[in-house]
Amino acid sequence: MKLQVGRNELLSALSAVIGVVERRQTLPVLSNFLLELKDDELIVTGTDLEIELEARARVQNLAPGRATIPARKLFDICRGLPEGAEISLELGAEKAQLKSGRSRYSLACLRAEEFPAMGRVAEGVSLTLQQGQLKRLIEKTQFAMAQQDVRYYLNGMLLEVNSQRVRSVATDGHRLALSEVAIATGFSEVSQVIVPRKAVLELQRLLDATEESVTVKIGAGQIEVDLDVVRMTSKLIDGRFPDYERVVPDSGDKQVNADREMVKRALARTAILSNEKFRGVRLSLDGDKLSLQTHNPEHEEAEEDLEVSYDGTPMEIGFNVNYLLDALSALDGERFVMLLKNSDSSGLIHGADDDSSKYVVMPMRL
Questions:
Q1: Less CB within 10 Å around the terminal CB: N or C of the chain?
Q2: Domain containing 270 — which CATH number?
């Protein structure tokens, strides 16, 4: 196969796919891109056997065909070429020749027949929404996903769709993040799938905060997300996600209403002297005063007094300061609300004027 293409056009496609290509692979061919040239379009595919990314680029087709090429090397070469450079690429069964201006590169190839294909989602249900909506659902919840937890179903994000909304939920067992967008989906029944952590983070990287449409198709054990010039196919986590609605407090007789940035900055300051292992912060509420207190094994202490609006009896409760910071950072708006019951019950955080995103944080003993 042989083609000519602009450096920027090719680099855009390679950048979309390179994230799924691991540096260390069990199969040598997995460190390669599969390139397929059809008509005036080059299809670039990368996979790690769990996720497959496919991007398309407009090119000048001089000889169609299929071949593989070392992914990281091709990406680094293209990235290093001058802006606006023209690239000539010729690929055979064992070698690829890349030319651009006075630059010449020869790369070793593997047979295209060795490249594994995940296959498309043939049957299933699909919905269409704005890229910005899906990106928001991911950004508001992804930080609460577990990492390498033995409860494998927590190492991902729950995507739940019913007739009126799409909801994302993530939890690591100590905190929970939930976000939803109201949209007529056409689904007659509730559908739940668990998208793996790596696929969630790749989607977050690929999506733009625009009104451009994105199609999500859910089939047997797979999810396919089509962003026009980029398509991602991923295996789903086969497991039962916890009944998260039981975890979200339905009420709290103690309510804090406060300036989000003010509390966030105060938490960041007091976190400096918190225990590096447990990261605990004590919240003391009395009247319209919130006191934040931290200490560490070196007998260092931090205390901040803040003015808030508090509706409830005096109380003290401990939280992981990082979990509070993550929740406040994910919220929009100037003010937030925290609902509390007692020092042994989880706290519920959401925006003062928008509860489409909610965050549950379990208390900790200090």
A1: C
A2: 3.10.150.10
